[in-house]
Predict the 3D structure of the following.
Amino acid sequence: MKKLAKILALLFAIVIIATGCKKLPEFTDGSSSTPTPVTPVLDEPTVITKAVVSVGITDAVCGGSVEYSGYYELTAVGFCWSEKDEPTIEDHYSVEATSAGSFVGKINNLSPNTTYYVRMYATNANGIYYGEVLSFTTLYEVNGTGTSSDPYNVASGISLQSNGITGWVKGYIVGAVKSGISTVSSNYDINWDAPFELATNVVIADNASCQDISNCIIINLPAGKPLRTNVNLMDNPDNLGKQLAVNGTLRTYYGQAGLRDSAGTESDFILEDAPTPQCVVVFSETFETGAGDFSTQDVVLPSHLTYVWFHASNYSCMQASGYFNTNYESESWLISPYIDLSNVNSANLQFDQAVNYASPQDALSIMVSTNFTGNVTSTSWTMLDLYGWPTGTNFTFVNSSADLTPYIGQYVTLAFKYTSTSSAAATWQVKNIVITGAL
């Protein structure tokens, strides 16, 4: 028995010695040192709100990403938003995925012209995790199509400023910019009540009682045009509160939302309670079969040419050119008969023209005189401001116009003055001249 006990004790000792002398495991590099600890997994997702990609009237597109390699699976990834500055999924949210990655998502059913706050979120069994907050403001809802019968309202005109759109805008006249102001920076820069100091502009709004310039458009009233004469508040203080619709380009004026570049004729604005003028044709000439009652005078006619202005039957127009195998210096005038503007309250000139082979700049001009002597060189002429010049590179006709209202009550003579040089000789074509007036 004692012998058996000794044997068992000896076996136990051998096991203990063998276990204590066990060799450390070798690693791939042959060492037996303690291994480098494994990088721990992410217990919380990293949530990044990257950008608000685009903004519409009632929607916006946002981008973000989520990085995660933790134990608990993600249950939702998306965006949450609110008008509060710290949105949560208790407000409004979308679900874009249930895994990590980069995402672009669209949020809908927003209100126009409203500031929202948005951020990305991710959820798992441990909780909810958010990215940083970004903000954006939805666009104004465009009201109207910009035509005279369906003009934009003022809010739409404000929202379309950066697009350089030309069209009609309608609102109530609420004031005018004060004299001496170059940039409107506050409501104090506007005369909201009489007396008014400037005739160059009026301010319109969607509400007749508005006195907040951020909700207004400043309308430029071009000098010498019916738009300024009939609308400005300095001369017409009773226009305050009336509705005005104007055609022009939506672009910044006085540092604020504006409408500029209106031709300013009777047909470019509609003022509430203003009588609708009766439009009549004062003068017309198509040049379809010839020069009609127009005449020509050559001030400079090169010896190689017998004429500059002539009737081009293939285009049914009058045509001028100082070119014949080469460019020549010339000056030639196409002169209208006397035109009676004594019985109208406004007048407007329109005609079709095409220019090729040279820029019309400085070489071609439309002149007007109230004392034509029969000789262009001994007559006083004024160059008209013309809207709608051709490019000078093709024979495509464009419609052009000029305001003749400053000459109402008088007889006038119009002239199309052509000049060329040895380095540039345009071909100028003119037809379909019409002068209309309002009684």
Notes: The mean pLDDT is 89.
